[in-house]
Amino acid sequence: MTTPAIAADTRPWRDADAPPFISIRNITKKFGDATAVDDVSLDIYRGELFCLLGGSGCGKSTLLRMLAGFETPTKGQILIDGQDMATVSADKRPTNMMFQSYALFPHMSVERNVAYGLLREGMSKAEARARALEMLQMVNLEAFARRKPHQLSGGQRQRVALARALVKKPKLLLLDEPLGALDKKLREKTQFELIRIQESLGVTFIVVTHDQDEAMTLATRIGVMSDGVIQQVGEPREIYETPTSRFVADFIGSVNMFEGTVGPAAPDLMRVETADLGAVAVPPVSGLTQGQTVYLALRPERITLTRSAPEGRNDVVRGLVLDMGYVGHLSTYRVRLENGRMITVTQSNRLRDEDPISWDEHIYASWNPAAVRVLTQ
Amino acid sequence: MSAPDAVPSASHAPLYRRLFLIAVVALALALRFDLLTLEAQTAGTLTLILWTTALALIALEASDALGISRRWLVIALPMLWLFVFFLVPFLVLGRISIAESMIARPPYSPLWERGSDGSLEIIASLDNYRFLLSDALYRNAYLSSFRVAAISTIFALLIGYPLAYYIARAPEPRRSILLLLVILPFWTSFLLRVYAWIGFLRRDGVINNILTWAGVIDEPLVMMQTDLAVYIGIVYTYLPFMILPLYANLVKLDGALLEAAGDLGASPMVTFLTITLPLSLPGIVAGSMLVFIPAIGEYVIPALLGGPDTLMIGRVLWDEFFASRDWPVASAVAIVMLVLVVLPIMWLQSVQNREVPK
């Protein structure tokens, strides 16, 4: 193998020859006439923490449920560790699931909830109990082993559900909105807890979430889904910096989108004619023809606002600050350009005593050509 | 905060109410002393309505005057109902059960008597209860009633549970239709439905005819006037009372719990035994109670379908009252019966209450 071993270990998806651990091949799922998942193919590698990200009804949960064996694909094939799952029922699969509602058994103590899966394997009661307590220790809940689920807080229940799903050491753990029911602070704390547990156990995780911050924080890679189709798969940075479609650019973070046509070809800098910004220099993109309609995506934080015209910058437009929101670490501006188009700009507040641009100021908005992402679809 | 302006006339309300109360009472008295000419039946109905209204108004007055929240009025009516139609008859029964039987009207001794020297003599004894204990007939009747009720409850549970489960898991439009089918028999008289079973079970009934025609049997089966017929009748009649509470319980069961059990390696059978069954226990208890309690005192079904040797406490009770005309013994039979049924229920209630609510 020519690629360095370490790279193959940490990011196997970058290696074309690496064998996938989970192979989803042309999976389609229809409920009556409605298509929930439409011809999805996806490879996931051992030890990954893969996030399926999308709005409600995009098919992400259905895909997860097909992996768990709760739904049967209408078409296509699922391989886990090389084994076809078509004839394997949910109770025989090497997967475990953490449910969005946690689905803790209300009539059993925390300890019995966690031991439940082990007892089904035929493990002795004493051993199952010991293993369950070990698992509860890992999620810092050993003191609550005798409690019933309704006597726990939401965060504690979430950890019981995680312990119960992990105790059988599944090859693949499926998590359906694992942090959805927690409040913001707890969610942020738990995200890193989840990563710590995932890394220490080496179990492959597939997480379904509608929360992009959660996906960005947790994931090794993200699959952005909409309308039953995976729009883009990539590392969080890739998804954010180089979205391949207007949908993904708009879905992840916020973005200013401008429609334009490709100008005459130039060797190292292309120009796109737009109604809102005039002629915009963009990094060269192959495969574009002159006169083609393209979309320019410009992230709010890549735009700089100044009171005077910035020197040495060609990509400048003038505008009026209509609105500003002070968030603390940054401020969000709504700027009206001279032709009436509204754009969003964020500026980070690095200095305590600077004189920030405020309402009704006439400003210059500028950006670096490299910050512009050209999209064709 | 300003006072709520939704009740600006609150201070006037009692005045109107008092005038209304006076009018109602006046009208009722006018009817009572035939000051108005009305048909007897109309007058009777009207009088009832007027006195009820007057009573309600007086209750309102009283609650305001005493400064008691009006909320208790809401439960006052059902409490009154229970008092008049349950507790009072129970006390009457209890009082008769400690009397002596005698040929008189009513056929039992008074509670007290003036002695020849003018002293007050209370006539009360537990002889009737001692008699119940001494005579094997009653013990056997109780035991046999318990047995019939218990076996019927078990069969109702065995038949009702799968049905309730199926209905609870059915998709919506079908579920409503199935529930309707469960309730449908109530639209026909209970007595008619029991009679219909005679048509099925008797010697030349539907079942025997079909089996003979199909060549399964040569001689008609004897089903009428047997315990089997009683079981069939009771299970059939009380099955909806088993299904409905079970359904109400099972329909709330979170499907994710069953999926979670399956995901953790439980086969459908194990999932049922470890998750569904324990979680539906309250429904099982409620349904079993609703079948067991009426079944134990059942009179009509054993009388119509059972044979002469089907001994149940309901029949003994009837015989004591109407054949022997021994009201005190009959009352004692009823009281013992009530205690035997109520005590286990109270125990069960306390057990359920002790469990921490979800």
Automatic annotation (TrEMBL), chain A:
ABC transporter domain segment(s): 22-252
Enzyme class: translocase
UniProt keyword Transport present: yes
UniProt keywords, alphabetically: ATP-binding, Cell inner membrane, Cell membrane, Membrane, Nucleotide-binding, Translocase, Transport
The reaction(s) this protein catalyses: ATP + H2O + polyamine-[polyamine-binding protein]Side 1 = ADP + phosphate + polyamineSide 2 + [polyamine-binding protein]Side 1
Coiled-coil residues: none
One MF annotation (Gene Ontology) recorded for this entry: ABC-type polyamine transporter activity
Entry's EC annotation: 7.6.2.11
Keyword Transport set for record: yes
Record note on quaternary structure: The complex is composed of two ATP-binding proteins (PotA), two transmembrane proteins (PotB and PotC) and a solute-binding protein (PotD).
UniProt family annotation: Belongs to the ABC transporter superfamily. Spermidine/putrescine importer (TC 3.A.1.11.1) family.
PANTHER family: PUTRESCINE TRANSPORT ATP-BINDING PROTEIN POTG, SPERMIDINE/PUTRESCINE IMPORT ATP-BINDING PROTEIN POTA
Protein name: Spermidine/putrescine import ATP-binding protein PotA
Organism (species): Pararhodobacter oceanensis
Gene of this entry: potA
TrEMBL record, chain B:
Record bears the keyword Zinc: no
Subcellular locations according to the entry: Cell membrane
Gene Ontology BP terms: transmembrane transport
Keyword Transmembrane: yes
InterPro entries: MetI-like, MetI-like_sf
A GO-annotated cellular component: plasma membrane
Transmembrane portions of the chain: 42-60, 72-92, 141-165, 177-198, 228-248, 269-296, 327-348
Annotated keywords: Cell membrane, Membrane, Transmembrane, Transmembrane helix, Transport
Pfam family, one: BPD_transp_1
Residue ranges of domain ABC transmembrane type-1 in the record: 142-348
Main location per the UniProt record: membrane
Membrane topology term: Multi-pass membrane protein
Homology family: Belongs to the binding-protein-dependent transport system permease family. CysTW subfamily.
Protein name as catalogued: Putrescine ABC transporter permease PotH
Source species: Pararhodobacter oceanensis
Taxon lineage: Bacteria, Pseudomonadati, Pseudomonadota, Alphaproteobacteria, Rhodobacterales
